[in-house]
Amino acid sequence: MIANPDTAHSxxxxxxxxxxxxxxxxxxxxxxxxxxxxxxxxxxxPRPLNHDQIAAELEAAGEQHDRVTLYRALDWLVEQGIAxxxxxxxxxxxxxxxxxxxxxxxxxxxxxxxxxxxxxxxEPALAGALPAGFRxxxxxxxxxxxxxxxxxxxxxx
Amino acid sequence: MIANPDTAHSxxxxxxxxxxxxxxxxxxxxxxxxxxxxxxxxxxxPRPLNHDQIAAELEAAGEQHDRVTLYRALDWLVEQGIAxxxxxxxxxxxxxxxxxxxxxxxxxxxxxxxxxxxxxxxEPALAGALPAGFRxxxxxxxxxxxxxxxxxxxxxx
DNA sequence: TCATTTGTGCAACATTGTAGCATTTGCGTG
DNA sequence: CACGCAAATGCTACAATGTTGCACAAATGA
Lengths: 157, 157
What we know:
Chains A, B: Its cofactor is Zn(2+). The structure is a homodimer of 157-residue chains. The first copy, chain A, is an alpha+beta fold. The first copy, chain A, is 36% helix and 18% strand. The first copy, chain A, has one domain: Arc Repressor Mutant, subunit A. Chain A has seven helices and seven strands; from the N terminus they run H-H-H-E-H-H-E-E-E-E-H-E-E-H. In chain A, the strands form two sheets. Chain A has a three-stranded antiparallel sheet with strand order 1-3-2. In chain A, strands 5-4-7 form a three-stranded mixed sheet. The A-B interface holds A 1-3, 8, 87, 89, 91-93, 108, 111, 119, 121-122, 124-126, 128-138, 140-148, 151-152 and B 1-3, 8, 87, 89, 91-93, 108, 111, 119, 121-122, 124-126, 128-138, 140-148, 151-152. Chain A binds a DNA duplex (30 and 30 nucleotides) through helix 3 and helix 5.
């Protein structure tokens, strides 16, 4: 069961995960400043980030990257199956690393605090609920509502 | 069980449904050309439509409406609970009439044929799959994959 | 080192939606 | 029916989020 949103999505950088360089060269891509930087940001992100947030992270790290180049790097990562797009409530895509192929997880968007959390338990239930003949393919799936933190009554002051 | 997408979403205009005028005046809104026209389009639409599609329908019917006015009419409908927003694969919202309050349904977006279908059976399963403390609120929920038509092998020629 | 091909960076454009504001219109009242 | 006023409309601008085209730079293999 998932109660605390901050631990609900404990993805940040498994120690044995392949390096950015490895991820890139494995698909025959060139190892460029932007791709490495974006990968590093995504790898240490606790939840899906949109283009703006990624750019902000990069700037915080003292890196300057062109807006278009960022879009293209992200597009490439998605195309290569390294990252996925997640639809948010606004019309901006969020991006997230694909952790292990074969396991898809859904996202929950809290309409109170705006956070996007990852839910590992939902997909099996969904697969059973879909009509026969339908196939659930994409991890891009977002539920909306209120998360545990926001439904909980405030602590007595 | 839902097998045929064309019947899966059999919403078009129940004969006893309230008229556009009734729907509008019931919330204290003014009955204007645009609201009535938009409601009529949504009422006869077999699936959620985005702003562009609605405008196209109106033009096909010989009606000319301002882009902004359309947005505002749609916003008002959503605000009044008459319509809901559905997120699509592009960043444009789709709109759909709320049929009966109290019953929320999810949407399935087929990535082959691009159709958005409505699934009545999914929500109960979802509610059980969410972690404790989480509340599923919004009907705006889209699953992605392939629908029955598109997963089925082509008929032997 | 050199050539080739892949990415980058810039500027311009496209789509989707919002904001401000003057004008028109629906509709209750006299 | 005429009036008056709030509610909607219809501009025009503007904002956010991507995309496209093209010249230039840089990664990689020979």
